[in-house]
Amino acid sequence: MPLVFTAAIPNAPALASELAPDFSGTHSKTYTALQELIGELYFMKPDTLIFLTAAGSQIPELMNTNISSTLRNKTLNHCFNSDVEFAAHLKETIDLGERKEPMTIIAETDVAPEVSVPLAYVLAHLEKTKVVMVSTAQLSLKEHYAFGEFLRHAALDTNKRVAVLASGSLGVTEHTADTHAQTFDTLCCDFIRHKEQEKILQINPEIIQTAKADIVQPLSVLLGVIHKLNVRPEVLSYELLHGAGQLVANFVLL
Q1: Contact, 39 vs 197, CB < 8 A?
Q2: What's the CA gap between 225 and 135, in Å, rounded?
Q3: pTM (2 decimals)?
Q4: Where are the alpha helices (DSSP H) in 20-140?
Q5: How far apart are CA 228 and CA 8, in angstroms?
Q6: Fewest Cβ atoms nearer than 10 Å: which of 55, 123, 142, 245?
Q7: What is the Cα–Cα distance from 172 to 233, expressed in whole angstroms?
Q8: Domains in the chain, ordered, with CATH?
Q9: pLDDT digits (tens, 9 = 90+) for 204-248
């Protein structure tokens, strides 16, 4: 079955308040864009959602795929079902393959708000969709990109409808003079808008490190997933919110 949906979304736990039904304030651009994205994801009805995140790694030198049957955050009362079968498929593909992929499996039920909050809003109306949580590693962006290519082949080798989401924030902006964070955000958004998203991998490493953007590794994996696929990149929204740049981008599969 095909890949049916690929996108990048924020992971800020503070978004939970705005997404609550009883929220009475003014909605942000991020909220509006997320509602649009969630509607499109719902229409695609994925069986499996591969969730790419910088959170939750236990073995930092490798990509960590979580095979716990459930993922939960007790404090926020979030609980999701994992696609253990697909996670096992990834491990089996690596074990039987000629190429060694930098991935291991972990079994951790409890997840951070940076995982449970975005999962809660994208899966609010997709109760049957199961999750494969993949935590990124202390590897180069090119190695994350190559792992994304592996994920693409593995996804296309199943009978499931698969969606892939990269989650995280862009540059951390504690002060308005955080020029590296602003530069990183501008470059990312411009590259995506001009269909040059792979140039994100070539951004000056000093700018990336100083920007403290925790989406850069998940996004690099996502770029590997969509490599060679016919996609239409769309920046649905970008704004400074909750102390960082928040990006909602849809890589529409054509």
Answers
A1: no
A2: 15
A3: 0.96
A4: 29-44, 84-96, 113-122
A5: 18
A6: 142
A7: 23
A8: 3-253 (3.40.830.10)
A9: 999 999 999 999 999 999 999 999 999 999 999 999 999 899 999
